[in-house]
Amino acid sequence: MNNNDESIINNVEIIKQHLKNKNVNKTVELNVTTSCSGIVDLSIISNLKFEHIKKIYFVPGEITEIINIPVSITYLSISSNKIKTLDNFPETIEYIIVDNNNLSDKINLSNYIYLKHLNVSKNKLIQIIDLPKMIQYLNIEYNLISELFLSTCIVLSTLYADYNPNLTIYNCPDTIIESRYSSNILFRTTLQHIEEGLSSNKEFNNDDVNNSVIEDQSRQNLVEFKENLQKYFEIKNTYMKKLKKQQKNTKNDNKLVELPPCIGCGKPGIHFSSLNNKFTASCGYITPCNWKFIVFRGKYYYFRDVLTEAITALEDIKENIIKQKMDTLFGYINDNKSAELFDKQLGYYKSSTELLNKYMTIYIKYYSNPHKSEIIQQKQKKIQQLLVTLTEELENGNYDEVVRLQVKEILPLKKYITKLNYEYTNITTNEDTGIIKLDQDQVTLDKLEINLGERPK
Predict the structure, then answer these.
(1) pLDDT band at 45, cuts 50/70/90?
(2) Could you list the residue range(s) of the whole structural domain that residue 140 is in?
(3) Does one domain contain both 42 and 148?
(4) Whole-model pTM over 0.85
(5) The CA-based dihedral angle spanning residues 200, 202, 207, 208, taken in that order and rounded to the nearest 10 degrees
């Protein structure tokens, strides 16, 4: 018997135990609270005549594949396992939750025409093919997706796409109300995508391949950093929960609190630190072992300050060049020395100009993005057209249609425009004065910082 056969048999027994003493005709939901590993065969559900089960939940484990899923299943949750593919799911599936698994490369959803809810966050996906038109909720956060095509998603209302470096969204629908986007999000239409492809029309270039490899590596590093950062806080949270429990248990006993054990050596104590741009977890025993878990945050600076300093530096270089020319003119320095200094200042000027242009490009993309402005104008135009229709329906006494237009079409468009105009929105209430304060910014807080040193890792 190989490992796969053994895991299938073990998992079948787990499913059987969870179905034990359940009513065949009344059971509509199965919550598997025991961790499974390897291949899970769900044919046992049909074999035992449980034909009314619609939803199945699996707790975190090491499930790599699920086979023989009954066609009655419309909801499947497999968070924090090791699923590698979605190929074996029934075509009638409506809800798929496979966050924090081992999905990689691409997934094709063309067979799942009834799919309404998809959560594939915290995987390593590069591409999603043929999103179904019935999709209403889509979460692709913490992946490596660079292009997302939404032209078929006519009822999509929730889109979470943060932490996908260099993501471009094509044909973003008006129906989206809730959204989170990556820090360098771009919006395009499919036509722009085709035109860019045709206009590039360039020959194969090894530099392009090298740049692509570097870009892919950068994306991979960012994903690994997020995963390691999450792991660090999981370690810390687990430790603190155990510590609080120990403190609670010994509160009335006048005993010393026994510290939770180190992951490396098992002796009491773990030390946590966030100094020097690092999150560090290390052995906290008197004579510590060598175990350490370190996440380097990178060195970040406020973007607007960096831009201001770059402008100031360039102006200083210009002044130095003018001053040097005047010193040469009045004979304070000789021609040879002047030529040497001029070449040096010219080098500074060129490098500073390139740096400033780079920062200005980022600034324009964040604060004066022409593609974003174009989308906003299109949405505003559509709102005006809908308002004309709404007025006509109101005059004709079609009040149900007036309400539908306002709630289902105009309101989502307004929310969408607000989200594009102000990526950051926060409302705070002063408890003493009762004053409510609205804070808004065109970009999210993470865009206001820039890494000028070593990348996070």
Answers:
(1) very high
(2) 3-200
(3) yes
(4) no
(5) 50
